Amino acid sequence: MASNWVRGNLNTTCVILDTSAILMPFEFSIDIEKELERLLGRFTIVIPQAVLDELNMIDTRGSGRKHRQAHAAYTWVQRFQSIPTSKYGDDAVVEAAQQKNAYVVTNDRELRSRLRKLSIPTITLRQKQYLILEE
């Protein structure tokens, strides 16, 4: 694991989760926090308010397995900091990543492509088992 100590100061990496990332632990039984620690060392997870709203909508309108996953995910992310954004959906994730100079965890292919074009580092799930960093 790479050290995050720089000249005696502890750097913490900011990480934005989109909806697909928030659902990963409940769909694939992956420990996102453990995987992020393996990749980045110290980190802080931040959730755009628009993503929380989307997850809440899935929770309240869904049924069956998807509803149960969304409900568990919504409960889990309540412990992380949320930030307001002026946009919705993927636009909110991009806006938050740019504001915070953050990494983005997502499985959304279209969003990953968009983030790459903006030079925003992404983290994605591989083989339904572990996260990889795409810089």
Q: Please, could you describe this protein's structure?
A:
This protein is of the alpha/beta class and 135 residues long. The protein has a single domain, classed as Rossmann fold. It has six helices and eight strands. It has helices at 19-28, 32-40, 49-61, 64-77, 89-100, 109-117; strands at residues 5-6, 9-10, 13-17, 43-48, 81-83, 103-105, 122-126, 130-134. It has a six-stranded mixed beta sheet, with helices on both faces. Strand 7 (122-126) and strand 8 form a beta hairpin. Helix 1 crosses helix 4 and helix 3 (49-61) packs antiparallel against helix 4. The longest helix has 14 residues, at 64-77. The radius of gyration is 15 Å and the shape is globular.
Write the layout of secondary structure elements.
Blueprint (H helix, E strand, L loop, with lengths): L4 E2 L2 E2 L2 E5 L1 H10 L3 H9 L2 E6 H13 L2 H14 L3 E3 L5 H12 L2 E3 L3 H9 L4 E5 L3 E5 L1
Parallel strand pairs: 3-4, 3-6, 4-5, 6-7
Antiparallel strand pairs: 1-2, 7-8
Helix content: 40-55%
User: In CATH's first tier, which class applies?
Assistant: Alpha Beta
Tell me the Rg in angstroms: 15 Å
Question: Which segments are poorly predicted (pLDDT under 50) over 5 or more consecutive residues?
Answer: 1-9
Q: Calculate the mean pLDDT score and round it.
A: 90
Q: Which term fits the overall shape?
A: globular
Biggest sheet strand order reads 5-4-3-6-7-8
Question: Number of helical segments?
Answer: 6
The helix/strand order is EEEHHEHHEHEHEE
How many structural domains?
Answer: 1
Our estimate of the beta-strand percent is 15-25%
Under the CATH scheme, which architecture would be assigned? 3-Layer(aba) Sandwich
Q: Let me know the CATH homologous superfamily.
A: 5'-nuclease
CATH topology: Rossmann fold
| CA(first)-CA(last) distance | 17 Å
Structural class: alpha/beta
Largest β sheet strand count, sense and barrel closure? 6 strands, mixed
According to DSSP, the number of beta strands is 8
